[in-house]
Specification:
This protein is an all-alpha fold. Helix content is about 60%, strand content about 0%. The radius of gyration is 14 Å and the shape is globular.
């Protein structure tokens, strides 16, 4: 079933499914990043922002502007690492489930 942006449905655990999807995508990308053997200059930034995104998701529905800012920082940090492209796309798709920031 398709849903409009802004419509939510709770999972059995009572958690917003968008939050569940975000947590799963962030967790996958964090694991992929941890397992990636190459060092690159902005790896620490990506790790910090993914941790921040996870914390936002754990707290409930995250602030969309802050979430998008973190996504941009992660994309800038790992965007040139092709092995992480699919994981980054999953995180971006999860962030887009929250719609546009208000105001």
């Amino acid at each position: 079933m398709l849903r409009s942006v802004g419509q939510t449905r709770e999972t059995r655990s009572g958690e917003d499914p968008r939050v569940t999807e975000l947590r799963a995508a962030v967790s996958r990308l964090r694991r992929e990043l941890a397992g990636h053997p190459a060092e690159f200059a902005d790896r620490g930034i990506a790790e910090d922002e993914l941790a921040a995104m996870d914390a936002m998701a754990l707290s409930g529905v995250p602030e969309i502007r802050r979430l998008r800012r973190s996504l941009l920082l992660v994309a800038g940090a790992v965007g040139s690492v092709s092995a992480l492209a699919a994981g980054l796309t999953n995180v971006r798709n999860a962030v887009e489930l929250f719609g546009e920031p208000k105001g």
